[in-house]
Amino acid sequence: MKRNATAQIFRVLLPAKDLAVAKRFYEFLLGSRGRNVAGGRIYFDCGPVILGLLDSSSVVEERRPHFPEAIYLATNDLTELHRRAAKLACLDTGLLHGDPDNPAGEIVVRPWGELSFYAHDPTGNSLCFVSARTKFTGTTRQISALRRAEARVRGRRSSTRSARPKARRRTPRVVGAR
Description:
Blueprint: E1 11-16, H1 19-30, E2 35-37, E3 41-46, E4 49-55, E5 71-75, H2 78-87, E6 108-109, E7 115-120, E8 126-131, H3 140-163
Parallel strand pairs: 1-4, 5-8
Antiparallel strand pairs: 2-3, 3-4, 6-7, 7-8
């Protein structure tokens, strides 16, 4: 494959219900100034990729684009970003994949090896901040480690199921019967 024929992501746009609020939010969270760009856009330089905010205040909620997954951002100071996110009260309060060992808003080593936490911006876009040292990029070694972790989880689930006492069958009580 020709090297110059490979596409590279250089910009991701997120909708913003209130562009001014979103700009202040991201400036505080990312610790960098956003720049106003024509057409209701604000750009933040995040390494080689620009994170752009697009004014969607005139778009009806049902028509506003929503990302099904998080935008992943790597950082060398995960603790500081977590502190800022906590101050903004934007940490995700849910569980990742419904797993009690994976509280989304806490700094946790995920089953795929990333040290990360999840948050939401004022529009509801999901963000994941990952320690730059632990980024999961899909290398052969990382995939092997992930498969081993998944096998351990499956093993724990099946042993938990078999260790549970069997539910006793109750005889239905009929009202008026003796």
